[in-house]
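note to self — DONT lose this again. spent like an hour looking for the file last time. sequence + predicted structure for the chain T wanted, 465 res
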Amino acid sequence: MSTHSSPSLDSHIADALRSIAGPVFAAVWSETKQKTELVVHASASRGQRDLRANVISAVRAAGVSHVKVRFHAVSSLLSPKSLEKLVAKFAGSKIVYDPTNALGRAKALVAASHSVRASLDGKVRGLYYAPRLRTYFVTLDSARVVVGEKVKVAELAAIERAVLGAVAAAFSGETAECPAVRVGFGLPAASLVPVDQKSVMGWNARVAGAVKRYWKPITVAALFGFGASAARADDPAVAEPNLKVSGSFGNIIDEYSWQVQGAFTAPLGESFGLQIEAGGGAVDGHDYMGAAGHLFMRDPDSYLIGVFGGYAESPDFAFDVTRVGAEGEFYLSSLTIAATAGYQFSSGLGDAAFGSIDLRWYVTNNFYISGGGMLEDDRVYGRVGTEWQPGFAALPGLAFNAQGVWGDDDYHSIMGGLTYYFGVPASLKDRHRKYDPDTALFGLFQSVQQEQARLCAAYGAPTNC
């Protein structure tokens, strides 16, 4: 068996790796003084031992005696500060297997950037790639190209020709992969990836603000190519720390009501997440407030299971409610099934079990309708809801929602409002499955609202009932 690369051998290796059921996303020849070996790269997932054995067996059967398999945690693929750093993880003399062409594209962009830096002698401030736009942006040092208020047009044209030449040379033979090129003094409001390390270190205040606002590590995986194999293998429970704030108003038991709440969600390693939420509101001028926390394990492609606890109180009526329970979500394409079960302790309502189940149908990735029911002691409620994220360019995280609840003891509630999701732009479906889980305060606040109304009806207290 030979380990010297040839088109025929490389083709056999690619066919062998393509036949393996596993998150293998690249293979390169690596040459040292001692030997030439094939390095196969895969994202870390369950069953690594079996996958390693299958890869080695398949590659050796294709005619390679020296093979090494390297596994990469998804978080490490999502966290490089630049494409140059990312490419360094897969160093090798020749790419053999690259099913999405992500590695080849990244290497070509890095090579083009080195040529641009070398030929433009300090005129470049930063080099960035916008995956959604498939555009390579070159930002210039205005002090080197502008005199007074006049742009050196001839020099600007020469710079543009040099950049186009460097990109064309780097992508020679791969014209379909060659990106559009933009040369200028600013950056667009788009997801951007710094191409080389100098672009990371050399951010000035204005450029840093634009890039840090719009660039997220997941851009590299989901938009640049590695997401096709790496991210799908084992997405984290929470894509990144995130915050949402919501406000609503409406009618609860024939009385005017308003409510606000916020939730912060953060990853705990790859498989777990933590959410902390707090909020408050009022019904007919009677305040209530509360807080809750969730600890959960989630596979964004399949399920969420977790535990939660919450506390709420009504200062005007001097009672409180505490809930502890378990929650689960199951993801079936455009349908989410969500359920909770637990126990409630209250100084006013008495102790009781509770539970809920809801079906949420995503008509589109940014619009859903839902229906379900809740059980609290011997009372039963039905509820419907909807949420829509228009995707405004200036406010990508803005969503509108409405909920209605009807049940025993003449309880009825119709509320509507808006939520703002801070952080990286994402579809509403992804926000619910990859970022923050459902709130625990909705049902808890409903119990407080109903008890306030009951006390007002039975005792007329406080005096402003």
